[in-house]
Design goal:
The chain is of the alpha/beta class. Helix content is 53%, strand content 15%. It is built from 13 helices and nine strands. It starts with a helix and ends with a helix.
Length: 288
């Protein structure tokens, strides 16, 4: 009795061996590393990326049980076709991981190009829906698992990069809704949250961009701690194995995640009075 109660609390272990997994943004970064980890654990993997050449190269590194698919997550029909092709090729679909995402150039809401706002939400939020929606009947039939990749940015105020934070907060809510809606069918869903991950996107946004470096410098320790794409991918893979409702890395973000209702009140109050932030906002708007 105690053992079964613990299993209900801790969740059921989920072995991906022999399962089929679809991953978006799989041509590089976290998605690429995750495809390798799950493939080594015995899964068949569909690597979906807007860069079809990158997807093909990544799949060729894995060999058998790897299917490259060129598709844009912002293209609803294209993603439905990617799911259908995966099912046709492998005979089913057990796990889907909505990982693809982009970040905007630093700008304020007042000065940014509205098209930038639309593009980020189309990829980061609507793209998650476009990825997950056509897969759900297969996930239900397989009693499988869905992962949506949010971000610790969903917890924080988004000055200078608000479309990204807005989109990731939306992804969090999408994942939470999925978790409840899939439960009656014996399927599960989880949300993954990451701080700063050492990927090309991070280097382009924070390291090689002067204003991005200023924004990065505002983060205090331990929130400025970086993890590798491999560490992030392993966090997702281990979360799948546990059918985890949420995973977060690095661990320094955990207290913030748990206490954000209180922390954000104080943080918003502080940031609106911080002269470093005020100067940064002025620089951002003068650069636009």
């Amino acid at each position: 009795m105690i053992g079964s109660a613990l299993r209900r609390i801790l969740g059921t272990q989920y072995d991906v061996r022999g399962k089929t997994v679809l991953i978006t943004g799989a041509g590089q970064g976290i998605g690429y590393e995750l495809a390798g980890i799950l493939h080594r654990r015995g899964a068949a993997v569909a690597l979906v990326d807007i860069d079809e050449i990158g997807a093909v190269a990544a799949a060729s590194m894995l060999g058998e049980r790897a299917l490259p698919i060129g598709a844009d997550v912002a293209d609803r029909a294209g993603m439905a076709a990617a799911v259908a092709r995966t099912v046709e090729h492998f005979g089913g679909l057990d796990v889907v991981i909505a990982n693809a995402g982009v970040v905007p150039e630093p700008a304020t809401l007042r000065t940014m190009d509205p098209g930038t706002f639309d593009r980020v939400l189309a990829i980061n939020l609507t793209g998650v829906f476009n990825t997950v929606r056509p897969a759900l009947d297969h996930i239900v039939a397989a009693r499988g698992h869905v992962v949506v990749v949010s971000s610790c940015a969903a917890f924080a105020p988004g000055m200078g990069g608000s479309p990204y934070m807005i989109s990731k907060a939306g992804v969090e809510q999408l994942g939470r809704a999925l978790r409840v809606e899939l439960a009656p069918h014996g399927a599960t869903a989880g949300v993954s949250y990451f701080g700063i991950v050492d990927t090309e996107m991070t280097h382009a946004t924070l390291d090689r961009h002067a204003l991005g470096r200023d924004i990065d410098n505002l983060l205090p320790w331990p929130l400025n701690v970086r993890i590798t794409a491999t560490e992030a991918a392993r966090t997702i893979a281990d979360g799948i194995a546990a059918r985890a409702a949420r995973t977060i890395a690095p661990v320094g973000w955990e207290p913030y995640a748990l206490l954000r209702g209180l922390v954000n009140i104080a943080l918003d109050h502080q940031l609106t009075r911080d002269q470093r932030v005020a100067r940064l906002i002025r620089v951002l708007e003068n650069a636009s």
